[in-house]
Amino acid sequence: MLYFSGGSTPRTPRAFRTPRGRAARRAAALLVVPLLAVSAAACGSDDSSSDSKGSPPAVSGSWGKKPKIDKGEGDPPSELKTKVLKSGDGPKVRKGDAVSAHYVGQLWNGDEFDSSWKRKMPATFQIGTGKVIKGWDEALVGRKTGSRVEIVAPPDKAYGKKGQPPTIPGDSTLVFVVDLEKIAPSEIDGKPVDKPQNPQLPEVSTKVEKNKAPSIKMPEGQDSAPDKLVSETIVQGDGKEVGADSTILTHFTAKAWKGGKQLDDTWAQNGAPQEIPVAQIPGWKEGLKGVKAGSRVVISVPQDEFPKEQRKQFKDGVVFSVDVLDVK
Q1: CB-based burial of residue 58 (10 Å sphere; 0-12 exposed, 13-18 middle, 19+ buried)?
Q2: Boundaries of every domain in the chain
Q3: Which reaction does it catalyse (predicted)?
């Protein structure tokens, strides 16, 4: 689901999605997810530098819908250029905030390489902390949610000499239009459940720590998941309930039952929670049914719950600790 420091791209959960979900993940990783108007003539504010080369390309279309971006004319600018095409009236983005946004990115020559609109889902990413390209960090801190911002990022504010082959060549100047939707919650706000945890499951900490996954202690002498899916809420929230068709905003961590090998961790990946349809990760639709936003849930998923092509990879089963931040 936009997070890339040092030229890396934004990432969404890697190993667990269904084939369709993995395709969406690969698309998200093309950018920025690095890990987005009124009209081209919109009276937006311009925070561009004094660099006279390469004015930002014209943009048309209304906020909340995929814009049309003209290709760049002449030589691209050598410095970061930012233009607010529509000023929002929501809270300002602060350094370290997790921001939910729609965006589209293209090369200076007009070739599009990524679009959250094509995936029909906004992306969530952390701003101002090196989790995304420098151009995003520098252009979006201080912007109000509800704004549409055009960013022209030269190579040193994007992916540099190496680029992101095959879609982004080395030394590419990139053009983005970003619709800042909202500041996303980054931590659950529920209360620990006052009862012993299920002994069939690994022991997961109920402590909520900023930017850190909970600890998971695997049971001694048990090298595989229970035969059937098992889930338990260990931190109880009071928000909206998860349904079979819900998309959740989540932080999660996952380990293999055998040996406790770390398989995924959104806190370590990009620092920002991810928006994930519960039907896309094996065991989540059943394991999270009825869970309320603000909760932490432990889910043990046996091998048989995974698609056939993934069963060899997860032959001993997987345990997830899932923080449900929001439900859509």
Answers
A1: middle
A2: 19-184, 191-327
A3: [protein]-peptidylproline (omega=180) = [protein]-peptidylproline (omega=0)
**Which residue, 24, 100, 11, 17, is CA-closest to 284?**
17
CA distances from 11 to 72, 233, 283 (A): 28, 27, 21
Class of domain 19-184: alpha beta
Residue type, 299: I
The amino acid present at 118, given as its one-letter code, is: K
Cα angle 44, 46, 52; round to 5: 135
Nearest-angstrom CA–CA distance, 226 and 171? 51
Q: Is the pLDDT of residue 11 over 80?
A: no
Q: Check residue 273 and report its DSSP letter.
A: -
Q: Is 234 helix (H, G, I), strand (E, B) or coil?
A: strand
Which element (helix H / strand E) includes 249? Answer: strand 247-256
Say how far apart CA 64 and CA 49 lie, in whole Å: 27
Catalytic residue IDs = 103, 113-114, 133, 159, 176
pLDDT in tens, 174-232: 999 999 999 989 899 999 999 999 999 999 999 999 889 999 999 888 889 999 999 99
**For 269-285, how does the pLDDT look when each residue is reduced to its tens digit (9 = 90+)?**
767 888 899 999 999 99
Q: Percent of the chain at pLDDT above 90?
A: 72
Sort strands 98-107 and 112-115 into parallel, antiparallel or unpaired. antiparallel
Q: Could you tell me which of 182, 239, 234 has the C-alpha nearest to residue 208? A: 234
- For residue 117, the cross-strand partners are none
Report the pLDDT averaged over residues 119-127. 88
Dist CA 85 CA 150 (whole Å): 7
* Tokens at 114, concatenated: 């990524």
Give me the pLDDT at residue 21, please.
44
Fold match flag (19-184 vs 191-327): yes
**191-327 is classed CATH 3.40.50.920:** no
In contact, 294 and 323? CB cutoff 8 Å: no
Q: For residue 280, what is the DSSP state?
A: G
